[in-house]
Design a protein that fits this description.
Elements lengths: L6 E5 L2 H4 L13 H9 L9 E2 L13 E5 H4 L9 H10 L8 H18 L5 H7 E5 L12 E5 L21 E5 L31 H6 L1 H12 L7 H11 L29 H10 L67 H9 L2 H9 L16 H4 L14 H4 L5 H7 L8 H9 L5 H75 L1 E5 L6 H34 L9 H6 L7 H23 L6 H5 L6 H11 L3 H8 L16
Antiparallel strand pairs: 1-7, 2-6, 3-6, 4-5
């Protein structure tokens, strides 16, 4: 590793510049909301939910996430379903970016797949039905609820009857506990109100031909559920069903909904709601009025423990791709600006009619985006996807060598002629030599000798020709092997480049996380020009800053611990030590009360030492002293204050003109 470059530190102003901070305000959750959450089973365990106090911006504790009352009543619970987890990753979103109607769309889709199609929620089927759009008004691009999930305009889907507007849902936010598990990296991302919304390729991603073929039967079944006379299924029926069975579709569950076993099912969130409460809740999250009837059951019997799935069926497991060693291609940002003509949620109701009308305004943009979309990932049966960097590696950088045909080379190369020249003698015409020799006195003997020499040379040239042909074959084989080696080297180089890019992407992601957490950024004064080395240097610098911050915090907590917890043993682990200073009670109040107790005891001891007779019974019953008497007593005792303080054990340090006494 080269020596670390010099640094220039500057404070990050990301959080203060973003508009989305002004969207948050103090949470206003009513008693009616609390009673509803209690009926739905969210308060059966202590501290599952924490209601905010006076804070006007979410500051969740460790292990808690920010959510909304209107998200919870539409099927959300923690730990979240892996399908929702994948959607948030692929679309580049946090939970607070989704509107309540979008949350209900996902709940209905998962219930539809598991209860009426008999398959896990399918990523390819989702892309055939839905797309994502920006939620904004004419003047403001929202961050809280800034994304809307819409039905594609050319798809026939269930009429969900969403409300035109969910009034005041942004003001009903709270904290929900999320259990830690091994896959926490892919759980709900920690709350980050400063994270902006960027339009990505995945917002418009369409199903691939392979996915369309695999989900053809599912789409056909959806159309049958919609159009079978007397057995039509509606979005309200699906919504009422998952609310009635008390299973949260967006929660990670032990069993799929097609194994639902009734009142004793392990995934039930609470006991049955009364008919009145159920109808009231359905009307609350839909556009149905008091005059509209709430379906007591579905016209199509859902799959469950009492209505088993067909024995011969194909389970299609296809989940949104999660990262493995780097981000997937579909997450690439289309532009730095939040493009896309959008409408507020009040105008995007979610039914086929409203979704289609919403899409018409963005049809031209959508067509342009989909033309440039990368091919969608094929569905797999594994949760963990192959690395896109490895699976998509092409022979980039390969420069194939053109293999020349033997005829082209033969113009200047003849093995027979080469053999003659290599003999070192000048070529002569045999017939001319024979004619000349016959006219000389030497006669026929010399002519025969010359012929023998020519025959010997001819034999030598034939051997040379054969050897040249063999050498040419060897050259062709060597050339072929050279091409193969070049191909292998190109593949290896491409794989190495992809691997380095994946490592750089992960390092840069870690740097961004440190920047958001620590509130400050660094720049390399003299960068090496190597992205990998520079990113690693920044990561080491951020790590050093974090380690120093933790060390300083440990030192401060260690010094304060004996004052706040004189009777407790100090924990060794830093996390346990920090938790001691964030209890629900006011530590400062307890500390002041303890000091007051010590002061009273010292005062009693001082009076006793001064041999003053005091009726302590009357002292304990004394009423509040007047201000004048109090001031007179203080004035009388002031000349003796140093002696009294010395008796009580207080030894003030000699302070400078501008310094305060230091607590040790």
């Amino acid at each position: 590793m080269p020596p670390r470059s010099r640094l220039t530190k500057h404070t990050s102003s990301m959080a203060t510049e973003d508009l989305q901070f002004s969207e948050w305000e103090r949470s206003r959750i009513s008693n009616q909301d609390m009673n509803l959450l209690k009926k739905l089973g969210f308060m059966k365990q202590e501290k599952t939910l924490i209601f905010p106090g006076e804070e006007s911006y979410p500051t969740p504790r460790i292990g808690y996430r920010v959510t909304f009352v209107d998200h919870l009543i539409r099927g959300l619970a923690t730990p979240i379903h892996e399908f929702l987890r994948g959607l948030l990753f692929v679309y580049g979103l946090q939970l607070h970016h989704l509107t309540p109607n979008s949350i209900l769309h996902i709940s209905i889709f998962i219930t539809l797949c598991e209860c009426f199609l008999g398959t896990p929620p399918n990523w390819g089927l989702w892309k055939r039905i839905f797309l994502v759009r920006r939620n904004s008004s004419h003047t403001t691009a929202y961050n809280v609820g800034g994304v809307v999930i819409c039905v594609r305009p050319d798809v026939e889907y269930f009429d969900v009857k969403f409300p035109d507007s969910v009034q005041g849902w942004r003001r009903r936010w709270l904290y929900i506990h999320e259990e830690h598990n091994d896959s926490q990296e892919y759980n709900v991302a920690p709350f980050d109100g400063a994270e902006k919304i960027f339009r990505r390729h995945s917002w418009d991603a369409e199903a691939s031909d392979e996915e369309k073929t695999a989900t053809y039967a599912l789409m056909k079944r959806i159309h049958e559920l919609q159009n079978t006379r007397g057995k039509e299924l509606s979005g309200i029926q699906i919504t009422a069903y998952f609310l009635r069975i008390r299973v949260q579709p967006l929660q990670a569950r032990k069993n799929p909904l097609w194994m639902y076993s009734g009142a004793k099912d392990v995934d039930r969130f609470s006991k049955d709601l009364s008919v009145k409460d159920l109808e009231k809740l359905v009307r609350k999250i839909s556009s149905l009025s008091k005059k509209d009837a709430i379906p007591s059951s579905c016209r199509v019997e859902p799959y469950s423990g009492t209505n088993a799935l067909p024995k011969k069926r194909q389970i299609l497991s296809s989940l949104p791709p999660l990262p493995k060693g780097g981000e997937i291609e579909e997450r690439t940002i289309v532009t730095d600006e939040n493009q896309g003509t959008s409408r507020p949620e009040s105008e995007v109701a979610g039914s086929r009619k409203s979704a289609a009308s919403s899409e018409r305004e963005v049809e031209s943009e959508a067509s342009e985006s989909t033309q440039s979309l990368p091919s969608a990932a094929s569905p797999t049966n594994k949760r963990k996807r192959d690395e896109v960097a490895d699976s998509g590696t092409s022979k980039a950088g390969k420069s194939p060598v053109k293999e020349t045909a033997p005829e082209e080379e033969g113009i200047a190369f003849n093995p027979y002629d080469d053999a003659l020249v290599s003999s070192g003698e000048e070529e002569e015409d045999p017939l001319a030599n024979v004619a000349a020799l016959t006219s000389t006195s030497q006669g026929l003997s010399e002519a025969n000798k010359r012929a023998d020499d020519l025959a010997l040379k001819l034999e030598q040239s034939e051997k040379a020709r054969k050897k040249a042909e063999e050498d040419a074959a060897s050259v062709g084989d060597l050339r072929k092997r050279l091409h193969q080696a070049e191909d292998a080297l190109s593949d290896k180089t491409a794989q190495q480049i992809a691997r380095e890019e994946a490592i750089i992407g992960r390092l840069e992601s870690q740097n961004r996380r440190f920047t958001r957490k620590m509130g400050q950024d660094f720049e390399l004064q003299e960068p090496e020009g190597d992205r990998l080395v520079d990113a690693l240097s920044l990561l080491e610098i951020h790590g050093d800053l974090a380690r120093r911050s933790i060390a300083d915090a440990r030192t401060a907590f260690t010094r304060l611990f004996p004052y706040f917890f004189p009777k407790k043993k100090q924990p060794e682990a830093f996390a346990d030590l920090a938790k001691q200073f964030i209890p629900e009670e006011d530590l400062g109040l307890a500390f002041r009360q303890e000091n007051l107790k010590i002061g009273v005891e010292g005062t009693i001891a001082l009076v006793a030492e001064a041999q003053q007779s005091v009726d302590w019974a009357k002292t304990g019953e004394a009423k509040r002293m007047t201000k004048e008497k109090w001031q007179s007593l203080i004035k009388a005792a002031k000349p003796h204050s140093k002696k009294i303080l010395s008796f009580l054990g207080y030894k003030p340090a000699t302070p400078s003109s501008s310094a305060r006494p230091e607590v040790k």
